[in-house]
Specification:
This protein is α+β, with helices and mostly antiparallel strands. The protein has five helices and seven strands; from the N terminus they run ββαααβββαβαβ.
Length: 188
């Protein structure tokens, strides 16, 4: 195992993707033990708890930094009526979530998507992503969907987005200081 210690600065690449047409697949069904719950007027702590549960292993830090530096902006984002959180609940606890952002006219941004570590590899993540995509396209006036992922995310994230119809449009190279030890072999 080759751990990268917390406090190390690492390089990573963000890939921005878009989808220009609604996919033609039918709405898939989640396993019987999973149900989707739409959060109505959610508090920021609820979003941050999902963000942390899904993103901790992938160094999702930006919203925690925003919560510290500009909590009003984070609250405005989370509570905006054109930003919606859907939580995949299973066995009484959140197993993943997606967040759709329709604030830009004609665009649905898949702002966040992911499963908690205990749900990764259970075989229904692709189904949840298909549901997220179709839910994004269901709002009237959507002409394209966008999403971004990075090399710190799950190593299959980019290829899954591409298999489902997203196309890379740009890249951005960045650096980040790890807040916890990183294990690049954890998905091998």
């Amino acid at each position: 195992m080759s751990l990268i210690p917390a406090g190390s600065e690492v390089a990573f690449r963000v890939t921005y993707l878009k989808m220009s047409a609604r996919p033609d697949w039918a709405m898939p069904r989640l396993p019987a033990h999973i149900r989707l719950e739409r959060a109505i007027d959610p508090p920021v702590w609820y979003f941050l708890s999902l963000y942390d549960a899904v993103g901790r292993d992938y160094e999702w830090q930006d919203r925690f930094i925003q919560a510290e530096n500009d909590p009003a902006a984070l609250q405005a984002f989370v509570r905006d009526p054109d930003v919606v959180i859907w939580t995949a609940m299973g066995n009484g606890w959140p197993q993943g979530f997606f967040m759709l952002d329709w604030r830009e006219a004609g665009v649905c941004d898949l702002a966040y998507f992911g499963l908690v570590p205990q749900a990764v590899g259970m075989g229904w993540g692709k189904t949840l992503l298909e549901i997220a995509i179709l839910t994004g396209w269901a709002r009237e006036g959507v002409e394209r969907m966008t999403v971004n992922t990075c090399t710190l995310d799950h190593p299959r994230a980019l290829s899954l987005y591409q298999r489902l119809g997203f196309v890379p449009v740009s890249y951005e190279d960045r650096r980040r200081v790890l807040v916890q030890d990183g294990d690049p072999t954890r998905f091998s």
